[in-house]
Structures are given as C-alpha cells and as structure tokens.
Amino acid sequence: MSDIRDLARTAAAWPFQEARQLLDARLKGGNPAKGFVLFETGYGPSGLPHIGTFGEVVRTTMVRRAFHTLAPDIPTRLFAFSDDMDGLRKVPDNIPNQDMVRQHLGKPLTRIPDPFGTHDSFGAHNNARLRAFLDSFGFEYEFQSASEWYASGRFDAALLTVLAHYDEVINVVLPTLGEERRQTYSPFLPVCPKTGRVLQVPVIERDVAAGTIVYRDEDGALVETPVTGGRCKMQWKADWAMRWFALGVDYEMSGKDLIPSVELSSKICRILGGQPPMNLTYELFLDDQGQKISKSKGNGLAVEDWLKYAPQESLALFMYQKPKAAKRLYFDVIPRNVDDYLAFLEKFEAEDAAKRLDNPVWHIHNGQPPKEEAHLSYSILLNLASVCHSEDKAVLWGFIKRYAPSADAKAAPILDRLVECAVAYYRDFVKPAKKYRKATPEEAEAFRDLAAGLRALPPEASAEDIQNLVYGIGKRPAFPEMKAWFKACYEVLLGQDQGPRMGSFIKLYGIGDTIALLEKAAAGEDLSG
Asked: 199: closest CA among 182, 173, 219?
C-alpha cells in the first residue's frame, strides 16, 4: 500500500490533485477532530435526480477514493444531503395531482402529501427516488434529510450560533440583495404553526438568551418562536453555511453558477466560527446549441437517455474528463465517450503502476477495472448495424461470432451491452439520418476493383491487409486525395458522411458480404434497404 501512496503523491489525475490539497492544505496531514473527513453533495428534492446529480456524486466519489489511497488510515464519509425542508415555490410540471399539490405551496416538501401516493410526503417520495438513483450506480453514501436534522435538534446549537451572530450575518448578505428584499430579509424563515408554510417575513425582535425571534406574520400579528426544533429553517445561503459549520463539511463541489453563493456562505461560515469546506467549482453542461442545460427547459440529456445508448462507465468518463471545462452534453457525444472508455480500458493492463493512477478507468472502477478483451469499438458496431439495416441484436452477434468465434455474450458482458446500446442508437439516431447517394462512374470502377482485390485475398487476411488494399485503391488519379475516396465509401456504402476504419469494418462484416455490397453499389442499386 505504501508504494501506491507514494505514486499517488505525484499522480497528475485531477482527483489526486484535489485529494492532496485536501489532505495537505486543509487537514495538515492529520485526522479532523470529529474523527473522519466529511465529503458532501447537496440535492434539492423539488425535482427528480438528474444528470447533474450523477456528475456531482461521481466526481466527489472519485476524490474520496483518491483521498483514501493517499491516507488510508483516515476515515471518510460522504453525505448526500437533501434540502427537503425548503418551501415548495411552484408545482413541477411532471407530477400527477398538481391541483392537490398547489394547495400546499409554501410548505416544506416533507409536509406536502405525496402526489404519487406512494410515500408519506412529496419530499419522502423524491428522497426515495434520489436514494434509488444513487443505489443503482453503486455509490457509497449516507443519506441525510434537512427536515430530520432540523426537527431532531441536531442543528439547534448551530442555529443558536447564527442567532448570536445575527447582525454580522445579515451585514454580509444585505449588500447582495435588491432594495426591496433588504427590507424583509432575515436568515431565519419561521414555519407558520397555523398554515405550515415557510415564511419570508421580517424579524422584529431577537432574544439570544431565550433562543427566540419575533416576526410579523402574514396577517400582521406578532409571533414569537424558537429558532430551534424545526420551528424555523434558514435562507439557503445562510443554511448552506450553517450546515457546513454544524457538520464540519470538509469537501463539497458546486457548479460555476454558484460561485457567488459559495463565497457568501464561506463568509458566514467563518463568522460562525467554522472553516468552509474545500470546494471544486465545475463548469456547466451545454446543449447542442451551446446553451446552458436547464431542467425546466428540458434541453439536455437525461441519465436514462445516456444509459439507453451507452454503459454507465462511459457517462462516468464524460464526468471525469476536464470537470472545469464547459462541455456539450448531447446525444452525439455518446459514441466518442464509449470508444474513449474502451480505449482507456484496453490501455490499462499494459500500463505501469504510476500511469494507471492517471488512467480514468482507475477512478471509474476504484482501481480495479474489469478485464475483458476490447473486441470491437462502439463506432464499428454502429456501422455494422447501419450496413446490415438491422435493429436485431442477434443479427449483429452473428457477424461478431464469425469475426471472433470465441466471443459470446456470457464471456464478454461489456461487448454484449455495447451491441444492445448500438442497436438502440442506430435505430434512434443513425437510421433516420442516413442518406445514400449513387456512385459516380469513377467510384463505381473503384468499387469493382476493390471487390476484385478482396476476392484475391486469402480468407485469413487481417484487417491491416484489407486496409492496405482499400488504401491502394484510393491512390488512383480518380481521387484527388485519400479523403475523397473514403468519403465515397461512407456516403455510397453506408449512407453517411463519416465512417469506420474500412479494413476493420470489412473484416467484421465479412469479405463475401462486402464484395456483394460493392457490386451492388457499382451497379447503381439502392442500398438503403
């Protein structure tokens, strides 16, 4: 273990960089007084878990794993914290019984009946969805509910500390607010005992010794209430700071859009006498038009969409790569990420121990990536489905078995999953966009010559032998550059403007079937069906 710890001290992978900074700069190489290092991710349960939720948890988990490699004797915990005491501001568009929920606007999510009728509250339902979502990926975490922390009194000491520093806290917050909001701002939001709603009302008096505030209710009456025991919750920026202080959070990521909030909450945390957590600010995802992805707009890619077309490890790779860079998150990024994952997986076995720590699959698989021969790339499977015009997984496996007789679904589960995903992606994205064209006379002659050359090859010819043959055809004067020849192959034979390495593809598809395809193309036959 000491050897890998030494290597981890110099590993270039960003999770190790984050873990080293956490260990050296924040913890000074030792165990915190609470006895463990606390990683946290936050969740707003007014909506369902989404791809950003996955990204934050998987990235935080990668840093946690790297930290454990560096300091295996220091315990770590990961809290998935649900802000389920927030008052519901609007009714989500994607739930049943919206009229019923509308009657409870303003109440904490955990005090609103479940519109789905499966749990004790709307908050409990969405929390269960969060846990099921995280569990489906095998994340190791501890679920935490804001409602439970407030109601149980575990936040009481921190809430009283906020009350004692009330003026300092609001003096940090007020300059960030508009003039109208400043008149009513308070870090404490009372929960109305009559309506159950979370109120944003002015605080008229404070009694630090008694631990109470007096606020003006919506009906104008003055009401005194303790700030403890779940009778108040906090405005979210102050709430975030109070939570960091109360829990002793050591590490938490957040998106670029929350930079001002992180700065403000950090100031409040210090006022309370705490140390704000180390933070990694990650860039936001963009849609196919370069616009920020929004849950309400629905202009992005959902986790279930990605997993329909690719294994979850490829999504983890997408999240791993350059977290501080803005990236397009749309369907067309999936094939590249799958093939990149397969390439990293194949390289891992041949790498030395130091390089393995910088290989993304080390972080995706907690240092133990699966061992399976990378038989075929995702892109070549897509092209196989394309030329076969098949949405049948068994048809693709028929070609694969001929190409690699020892391969089967049981022995190659990664490949089997890729075949299933490739069929779905072909059906939904490749097939609708296919557009074949007829070969020119020069191209038709080249196709006939390629067919003749393939006939002359021995049955055991390698993909490289076939590629050399294809390349030789493209050197003839009819093609001003090699790119034009391959473009002709893709557009005429596959009905698309890009395609695979032809030698590997022909080897998979089969020389005999390729000859038949070339002859049809040379004869001007319709290849679209």
From this structure: 219
pLDDT tens for each residue of 211-246: 999 999 988 899 999 999 999 999 989 999 999 999
Task: Pick 441-522's CATH classification: 3.40.1410.10, 1.10.10.350, 3.30.470.10, 3.40.50.920.
Answer: 1.10.10.350
The contacts of residue 251 (CB under 8 Å, 6+ apart) are 18, 22, 37, 38, 39, 40, 60, 63, 64, 277, 278, 279, 280
For residue 293, what pLDDT is reported? Answer: 66
Span 412-439, pLDDT tens digits: 899 999 999 999 999 999 999 999 999 9
Closest listed residue to residue 330, CA positions, set 290, 376, 270: 290
The whole-angstrom separation of Cα 506 and Cα 470 is: 10
The whole-angstrom separation of Cα 324 and Cα 341 is 20
**What is the structure's pLDDT at 67?**
98
Nearest to 18 by CA among 387, 277, 247: 277
- 8 Å CB contact between 233 and 239: yes
Amino acid 300: pLDDT: 64
**Residue among 81, 71, 62 nearest 26 (CA):** 71
- The strand pairing partners of 37, in sequence order, are 76
Backbone angles phi, psi at 301, to 5 degrees: -125, 125
All structural domains of the chain with their residue ranges:
2-172+235-282, 285-364, 378-433, 441-522
Phi, psi of 206 (to 5 degrees): -135, 140
Cα 222–Cα 226–Cα 229 angle in degrees, nearest 5? 140
How many angstroms separate the CA atoms of 228 and 155, rounded?
8
295 pLDDT band, cuts 50/70/90, is low
Distance, CA of 147 to CA of 45 (rounded, Å): 12
Q: Which CATH class name applies to 2-172+235-282?
A: alpha beta
User: Residue 477: what pLDDT?
Assistant: 87
CA distance 187 to 40: 22
Q: Using CB atoms within 10 A of its CB, is residue 93 exposed (0-12), middle (13-18) or buried (19+)?
A: exposed
Residue 308 neighbours by CB distance under 10 Å = 15
Instruction: Work out the pLDDT band at 94, boundaries 50, 70, 90.
Output: confident
Q: What is the pLDDT of residue 529?
A: 72
Judged against a pLDDT cut of 60, whether residue 209 lies above it is answered with yes
Residue 459 burial by Cβ neighbours in a 10 Å radius (0-12, 13-18, 19+): exposed
Q: Give the span between the Cα atoms of 81 and 40, in whole angstroms.
A: 7
> Are 2-172+235-282 and 441-522 equal in CATH topology?
no
